[in-house]
């Protein structure tokens, strides 16, 4: 049966489209999660638990950077004074499933975006519908950049901070598997979605919900919030906080720039 036009679709028709969007997206995530099962050893040993080792790329690079900036060994990491332990009967099984699903979601993200585009495309103009490939490409690129930012920057900085912070030498750090995996999931997904801000701002500006003036007026609050986040997830040194804060501030500025372009185009039409 031919697909109905937007004006011919009832509320139930929209709900039916949304239901199939969720069904197809869920199937894609599960399929990709199943595929990650075959590389689960590499996924856990090298990727998930990589930031718990002093030889991790970020720690080595930060150490080299500290030498170049004349900070000597101030940022170099030689050991991780903590262990990760499982305290629940089904703990490792649950972690295995959730990490595979997380990996499945990340890998299936371009397909999910394609499904979202198909869902919203009936409400777009004809010339806007032709931009599907551009939308999918840049949205996916920003998301993957955010995931890499979360993995190579946010997670190592967070692990380094909590591993070295102590209230007393009497207390030993023995983190639970759930707490570590929870931090990994939150850091990666939150960073990936944060990097989608320019795309979100694009659509919010087209809908008239935000404008460049609003974003500029709240820039100072955004800067403060970013600096607070950077201070929380990094060790107490300026270099680490700057490395985390600058990309986040650039994303916000890019969102303002994109909002300006969209706002001008909407006013001219």
Number of strands: 2
- Helix and strand run: HHHEHHHHEHHHHH
Rounded mean pLDDT score: 85
Q: How much of the sequence is in beta strands?
A: under 5%
Rounded Rg:
22 Å
Count of helix runs? 12
**Strand line-up of the largest beta sheet:** 1-2
| Distance, first to last CA | 35 Å
Secondary-structure content class: mainly alpha
For the sheet with most strands, the description reads: 2 strands, parallel
Count of discrete domains: 2
Task: State the low-pLDDT regions, or none.
Answer: none
Helical amount among residues, as a percent range? over 70%
What would the principal axes of the Cα set say about the shape?
A: globular
Family: Belongs to the TatC family.
Function: Part of the twin-arginine translocation (Tat) system that transports large folded proteins containing a characteristic twin-arginine motif in their signal peptide across membranes.
Keywords: Cell membrane, Membrane, Protein transport, Translocation, Transmembrane, Transmembrane helix, Transport
Subcellular location: Cell membrane; Membrane
Brief summary:
Its main location: membrane. The protein has about 270 residues and is mainly α. The protein has helices spanning about 10-35, 40-50, 55-70, 90-105, 110-120, 125-130, 130-165, 175-195, 195-205, 210-215, 220-235, 240-269, and strands at about 80-85, 175.
Give an account of the 3D structure.
By secondary structure, the chain is mainly α. 72% of the residues lie in helices and 3% in strands. It contains twelve helices and two strands; from the N terminus they run αααβααααβααααα. The chain has helices at residues 11-37, 40-48, 57-68, 91-107, 109-120, 126-129, 132-164, 177-194, 197-206, 212-217, 219-233, 238-268, and strands at 82-85, 173-176. A two-stranded parallel ribbon has the order 1-2. The radius of gyration is 22 Å and the shape is globular. The two termini are 35 Å apart.
């Amino acid at each position: 049966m031919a697909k109905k036009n937007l004006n011919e679709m009832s509320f139930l028709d929209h709900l039916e489209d949304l239901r199939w969007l969720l069904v197809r997206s869920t199937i894609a995530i599960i399929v990709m999660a199943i595929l990650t099962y075959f590389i689960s050893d590499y996924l856990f040993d090298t990727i998930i638990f990589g930031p718990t080792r002093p030889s991790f790329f970020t720690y080595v690079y930060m150490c080299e950077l500290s030498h170049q900036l004349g900070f000597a060994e101030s940022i170099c990491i030689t050991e991780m004074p903590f262990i990760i332990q499982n305290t629940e009967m089904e703990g490792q099984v649950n972690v295995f499933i959730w990490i595979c699903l997380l990996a499945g979601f990340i890998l299936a993200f371009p397909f999910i975006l394609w499904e979202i585009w198909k869902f919203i495309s009936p409400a777009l103009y004809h010339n806007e519908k032709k931009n599907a490939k551009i939308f999918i490409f840049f949205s996916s690129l920003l998301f993957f950049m955010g995931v890499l930012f979360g993995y190579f920057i946010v997670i190592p900085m967070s692990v380094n901070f909590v591993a070295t912070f102590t209230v007393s030498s009497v207390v030993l750090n023995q983190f639970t598997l759930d707490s570590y995996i929870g931090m990994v999931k939150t850091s990666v997904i939150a960073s990936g979605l944060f990097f989608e801000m320019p795309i979100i701002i694009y659509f919010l500006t087209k809908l008239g919900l935000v404008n460049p003036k609003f974003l500029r007026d709240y820039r100072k609050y955004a800067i403060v919030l970013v600096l607070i986040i950077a201070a929380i997830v990094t060790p107490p040194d300026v270099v680490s906080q700057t490395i985390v804060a600058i990309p986040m501030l650039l994303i916000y500025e890019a969102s303002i720039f994109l909002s300006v372009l969209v706002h001008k185009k909407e006013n001219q039409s």
